[in-house]
Amino acid sequence: MTDAPAISAKIEEHQPHRSLWWDVWAQFSTHRGALAGAAVFALIVLAVAIGPFLHTIDPGYLDYKAKNLGPSWVHPFGTDNLGRDMLAQVLAGGRVSMAVGFTAMSLSLLVGALVGVMAGFFRWLDGPLMRLTDLFLALPLLPLLLVIIMLFRDTLRRAFGPETGIFLLIVFVIGITSWMQTARIVRGDVLALKEREFVLAARSIGTRERRVITRHILPNVLSPVMVSATLGLANAIITESALSFLGLGFPSDFPTWGRLLFDGKDFLTLTPVRVLWPGLAISLTVLSVNFMGDGLRDALDPRIRGR
Amino acid sequence: MFRYTIRRLLFAIPTLLVISFIIFALLDLAPGDPTGNLPLTIDAKTREAIRISLGLGEPFHIRYIAWLNQFFINEPLNILEEWWGSPIGDSAGRMRIRSWSTRSPVVDLIVERTPQTLWVVGMSYVVGILIAIPIGVISAYRQYSWIDQAGTLFSMIGFSVPTFFTGLVLIVIFSVNLNWLPMIYDTTHTVTGWDSFIVQVKQIAMPVMVLALFNAAQISRFMRSSMLDNLNQDYVRTARAKGMKEHIVVMVHVLRNSLIPVVTVIALGVPQIFGGAIITEQIFRVNGLGALLIGGIEAADIPLVQTLTFIFAVLIVGFNLIADLLYGILDPRIRYD
Hints:
The complex is a heterodimer of chains A (307) and B (337). Helix content of chain A is 71%, strand content 0%. Chain A contains 13 helices and no strands. Chain A is globular. Chain A starts with a helix and ends in a 7-residue tail after the last helix. Chain B has 337 residues and is mainly alpha-helical. At the A-B interface, helix 6, helix 11, helix 12 and helix 13 of A face helix 1, helix 5, helix 6, helix 9 and helix 10 of B.
């Protein structure tokens, strides 16, 4: 009994700051790699977002007199075989790669969370939805992605124009082939949450099922979804680059990081630095996102947090 | 165990059937005409004749069943025949899946291309495992030491940096700047003596290293966490209390038990490696299965692409099964029945 006042005093001491997100941040900021990852990622996003306003050369401008140049003050990353400025292309390509990454990741999270919650919450949907997930996991994804893009490229180009059509197609195929891990994790969490007392309490006061899901289940599966988001972003950026690298992504006048690598790989002896910049951009982005995901996983895990 | 194996095998059949249907339907029902790339001077009647000669005259379900029949019955029979030496049944009249662009049987093309891929992929997997296991063991044994931190960084970089960038960087360093290794993999090269063996080692070094780094990054993580799980077990304390030498405790007792989950991860990773080889083959111009697939996709060679993609699917389902069964065989604590 003598301990009781001391404990409550201790709890009170911590009271003012304690909110979930403050705790998460506190844990996240102890992870050096995650902080560095977040900083680098913020820097890349910032560079890609405002870079084209500072470095105003048009990435598509051809200047035959200045082809295959090394780095200089006018062209900090040099120029390619058609005299286009590499820095401008890397920045413009980053915008596309990031846009594809974020949109595809959002789509895959949406599908994954939906399938996961449905399978976990409704018993009769569990079997069929999980069989579907297993089926998708057994599909050979890279060959299928290539095949789908090859087959539907022309149709979508005709319907939406060359750039929007390919963008929609790539985002759609990446999103639709990468939701399975999220769905599995979310389903597991929902299965456990469903049996908890607060859900029972919510049901017993007559809360509708839709409301139980949106109000009680979804906020609690937010942390696994956030960790999947980082993995999904990294995966989407790599997949888009891989597709473009195989020549089945965006058209060549529309730079993305993978496309720049694809175009640069034929000039390795002449201008080897050309592949360095887009490659470094992809690698740094993915690396920083993965480090962030690592830190986020630790920060959002209540068993690790606070220790 | 036996009943479990049978059940899993039976379950794999509908999975494969559904996947084969998805692949077939996707490729078959897609917009686009296989005669679309032919010159415009060909008139409509000839065009129709070409379509029929490609087997497109039949309705969809007939073609699907014919393809299944060719893939699951005719082609395995042909392979058996080659092993057997003498013809089995009506071997001349048996329909085969034919490529549209080369008109030769797809399976022959695949058999022709497989050795290159297997060499590169197999070697890279072996090298990757050989790198990964020591890294995993040491970083678990010296947890939180600098070597562990370095191992973590290595694996993080290994699976963040895409293979198509590491490959190009290696080419720039070793082929362009140092001029040590050839940039392009020559498949026609045959090993006849010591000198040609050195040439082979040189040309295979870069593709193998690229894939091996990627594999090692993933496997070393699993190895580390599996070692960490085992190092705190009671049997380790018992072994140490008996006075066994430390290296025997770690290298025999702990390592053997830690390898159980790692072996299943290795088995699960094999199909992904074939997928990764598609990109690596493209970088180093290895004309293996990946190059065959990309070539088929670019030439819109539907039967070839269907068959190859389905073989990739068979690999995934097969190795999933192998991983599950291996886990049961290696770990007596796992009981499936």
